[in-house]
Amino acid sequence: MDLQLIRTFLEIISAGSFLEAADRVYVTQSAVSLRVKRLEEELGQKLFTRSKAGIELTPAGEQFERFARSLLKVWEEAKYQVALPEGYSDLLSIGCQYSLWPRLGGRWLRVLERQEQSTAFRAEVGMPDRLMRLMIQGTVDVAVMYTPQMRPGLKVEELLKEDLILVATDPAYSCDLDESYVFMDWGPEFAMAHASHFPRFDQARTSLALGPLALNFIIDQKRAGYFPTRLVREDINNGALHIVSNAPVFPFPAYVIWNSEKNPQLMQRSLTHLHKVCGQVDNEQEVVLEEEGADVDQIRSTL
Q1: Taking the complete model, does pTM exceed 0.90, yes or no?
Q2: Distance separating alpha carbons of residues 9 and 29, to the nearest angstrom
Q3: Strands 224-228 and 163-168
Q4: I need a surface site. Which of 35, 129, 162, 272 has the fewest CB within 10 A?
Q5: How far apart (Å, rounded) are the C-alpha atoms in residues 84 and 90?
Q6: Structural domains of the chain ordered from first start
Q7: Are 37 and 19 in contact (CB under 8 A)?
């Protein structure tokens, strides 16, 4: 069976439409429809029903989804094992959201390298949607991100109690959100909480994603924006950024999501290493807030 057909099938489920799936796999919508038709012909079953409300899996499609995920995972595992460097008995592929890599993902990888001497590693850094697709395909075994999605065969747990704080290059900046303010896209939950606490704020002229890259823009252009405490720690310490007093602090927890079928012993040890690293990061966040005199119990949003 053509694995390209299976990947397209799973992308349609994830995206919720043929059109969005076409964008994700970089082909036209007609090409996606043709792939589905070929897959249905091979299986001898209809996989989707389409209506004005969108697409839905048929009973046969629901049954095949489970096998499709398993097929991809087996294929990816086979590729990993074949490509396993000489002298190692296993390979662990980890994923990390851009904004979590500098203070969490990189540290975790260094600990894994020291503690798991018989394991080779592969790291992917990206946005949550891409990391989730790689996990569904079986390319990534375990990932750290802010907004995971529940999928069959994957487990999720809260990892880190993060805070989003308002920082600015100007120590006298107020929380009135003037033209210097840049809106950071930390997801729909943050957007709703932000709108609730700043009802008179219409829309920022500039909006950005990709935390670490956006942080450079904030500093270089002398602007203000919301960032995870962990991400801005060094810039606060060296005076490049300042916590804006009286601004609301938004909770923004990070999560770990992993493949429950991956080597259980290796996965459990890897998660234990990750939790130890998170303990260090948690302590650093509290130190930053305390040193800057920020009241972490001030106005908080329920995300």
Answers
A1: no
A2: 13
A3: antiparallel
A4: 272
A5: 7
A6: 3-64 (1.10.10.10), 81-161+253-287 (3.40.190.10), 163-252 (3.40.190.10)
A7: no
